[in-house]
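tmp note - Crp/Fnr family transcriptional regulator
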Amino acid sequence: MALPSTRRIFERDTYIVREGEPPNNCNLILRGFAFRQKLVSNGARQIISLHIPGEFVDLQNILFDVADDSVQSLGRSEVAVVPKAALTDLFAANPNIRRAAWLDTLVDASVFREWVVNLGRRDARGRIAHLLCELMARLKASGLMDSPVCDFPLTQEQIADATGLTPVHTNRTLQMLRRDGLINLSSSKLTILDWKKLADIGDFNDRYLHHAG
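out:
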């Protein structure tokens, strides 16, 4: 059963999903990256997840009447926009695909739990180290990289919003990780020079990503 979809290009910071709007589609990233976010009343932003090629950014919205968070493009991205009705029919007709979609949302929930721990119980170095390790682990597991270097489109401000730090504190922490010979971050490319030490600092264990699932 072929899924009807429309391919769309989203430029940097363009909204793919807007909080408060009815979601008529679900969005699959084909190229590029995206982030999910929530805004509070004073305008401050919390980035609550990152998304890479091959991932639906809003599969949970297939059962919701209104989007409860927003998704924006990180850099330029290409997205397959799939009507919710088509996905509903596909899941109804294919139990294995329905199970895979359910698993996808459960892994999302597992990642959210880990991000709560990261924000609440790790120091600045640990938070950023964990974020960097997670992104690289997910890209490797998806077959999107085969070297210690990966695309890293986040700005320092976005890293700060993902880790609950100020931009100044984020800058200092990144400089510290560079000076310690753990990472190189330049021209939107991330190189992890010492995976073991960085993973130790971030208390990183990829069990919560459930790659074997």
